[in-house]
Amino acid sequence: MRFLLFSLVLTAFAQISAAFEIEDQTRFGVEGGAERLRIISTADIAFFEPMVDPFLTAHPDTEIEYVVVSSAELMRALQDENETFDLAISSAMDLQTKLANDGMALRHSSSATLSVPAWAVWNDMLFAFTQEPAAIVISNAGFADLPVPKDRHDLIDLLRNHPDRFRGRVGTYDVRASGLGYLFATQDTRASETYWRLTEVMGALDARLYCCSSDMIDAVASGELLIAYNVLGSYAMNRVGQDAFSIVLPTDFTTVMLRTVLIPKAAASPDLAREFVDHLLVQAHAAPTDGVAAELEQIETSLNRIRIGPGLMVFLDQLKKRAFLSEWTNAILQD
Amino acid sequence: MSLLASAAVLAVAVYFVVMSVASQVAQQSQDNVLEASARSILDSARFVAGEISLDLPYSALSMLDGVVHERVFYAIRLEEEFLSGYRDLPRATGGKAGTHGFFSAAFLGDEVRIASVQRSVATDMGQRVLQVSVAQTRMGQTQALARISRTSMGIGFGFFLSSVLLAIVVARSTIRPLDRLTVSVSRRGPKDLRPVAAPVPKEMVPLVTSLNSLMKRLKKSLSRSEDFIAEAAHRVRTPLAIVRTKAEVARRRVQDPATRDALSEMIHAIDDSSRTAGQLLDHAMVTFRLDHLSEQDVDLPQLVAETVERQRPVSELKNIHLMTSVLEPWVLKGDPILLQNALLNVLDNAIKYAPDGAQVDIVVKARAGGAVLSVSDTGPGFPEDEMETLTGRFARGGNAGDVIGSGLGLTIAKEVIDAHGGDLNITNIAGAGGCVSFFFPLS
Hints:
The structure holds two protein chains of two kinds. By secondary structure, chain A is α/β, with parallel strands linked by helices. Chain A has helices spanning about 1-15, 45-60, 70-80, 95-100, 110-115, 150-160, 165, 180-190, 195-205, 215-220, 235, 270-285, 290-300, 320-330, and strands at about 25-30, 35-40, 60-70, 85-90, 120, 125-140, 170-175, 210, 225-230, 245-250, 255-260, 305.
């Protein structure tokens, strides 16, 4: 009921301001340039900026409008509002897959899409251009006298052995509010039953639930949290003041989310969009130079790269989602 | 040509058969996967605490995304009530619980194959039918069929080529004995009516048998008519000789000039007839010998000299001078009697038609390609417009006048020369007279 009311309010609000809720918005390149690209994305502007710059160098007379929304809003904008965007970038692989599967994406095949690994392209519609692991972030101060956990078993043992220290100081995604949190959680359950035990343990320690990775990292950095589970590793690595925390990629398995891009069917300038996709792919799948990709390459065997495909839509099923959320809620909120 | 057409028709038929089988198999396998997927969803359905709960297996949808990426849709319905998935996915109508159905439809911009399975579940409102439909685009199937189409096109083309090749080989081997037979029959001389002895395939034995029997009858009938002619000529000649002798005696006896003239005309006519009969006999003899041509070494200058000597008494009667100005040595294979007969006929003609005091020159010249025997006279020559037909039977020159002749002489000569592989040429020497030449090529 509360949800319904909230969404009604939200809808009414959206009617007034925009058809969908915009979190942030910016413009790259020349204002009023000869060519124009509208991008709707879930990625922060700071995260995206380095990827845009080389493209603008190659296409100087281009204006790029960049709109940041949540993954659910992105879905809504494209599917329900029929907004014209030339590219849709999202970390919510399941929703992106559903968009492509439902025929909302243009097919695109080029030398760039053919040269990337098979897991990075689905049906010539969906293209992965980053790999972002779900990491455990621990506070260095909090672990001064404790061994750093290598995997989930270590983590479970640690939490069980020191309940007083960790009570109320463990954080993870609220999978009811965060699409990415839901994706990580569901993929964790597919990989191992450990996830449910860990959730039970975290629930017993009154785990705190967050909407976003950055909030969790902030909380760890400030010492408010000692452990944050399933945090976007790339956000943690790119963050300043890293000496306050350490990033652990669990060795039993590390879930890897692929940030994907698709060209919506209603794109106004699809050709430029295709060029941009090629640009993203070439840049992303060249020799890994930056931290994340290089680090991932070293632990290739324990990577649990989420496979793009219709399987992802299973957890979007409303019956399935309802069952999962109720089970998860039972585990984490042990009232 | 009809061979090519039928091979092409067969090849096309092969293509379509392969394609139809392949598309059925592809359809079947897609249906099987779809049904398995739909069943795995259906099997996860439970009725818990007053509502249907479905634990959609991850593999139910991921199994549909193979090497070729496919778009996948599903819908779960409890009778008319939509529970989950794609609300607008077309559903199979009718059907009972536990059954399944497949159909193709268009959905969200692509053609999809849909499998629907259903079963009844026990709810607090009694048994109700739960239906699960799973749909998949047909990209993989299309690609597979395109691949198979290329393959079966190759198969069809190969089939076409090999059947054409086979047909050609079979036709060749069928026709070859026929060709051999044709060659062996057409290579025969005009008088060769022996039965065909070359081995032929079983199928052609009746043809050859009837051909042989035809030739046998033909030969029999030919020889019978030639026998008849020879017999008739023979039988006519003897009484003619008697009649001629009697007429000669009678002419000496009678004094009446009119009667004498009449008897002279009679003798002339009798001479004509008996000469014709003689030549008919000659012709029959030549025909017989041609059938059994002997292959002896014949010294051509010697044969010419002897023949000329034989004719000399007759020619001197007519005051015609026979001469052999050039006799170069030459030996050929053949029948001396026939060759002599041929030359005799030509000489006979020359003596007959040349005027008194004329000269007849018989020449044998050896050349690189063969020998030429020519008989030329200082007579009137041949009529220009009849040269072609003179060698036909009973053909006589338009300027022969009242000279006795049967018209068989040149015919006999030509037959003999032909049988020896040579040529007979009739020419006129400008301002001199006629010339008949035999050409014997180097064998």
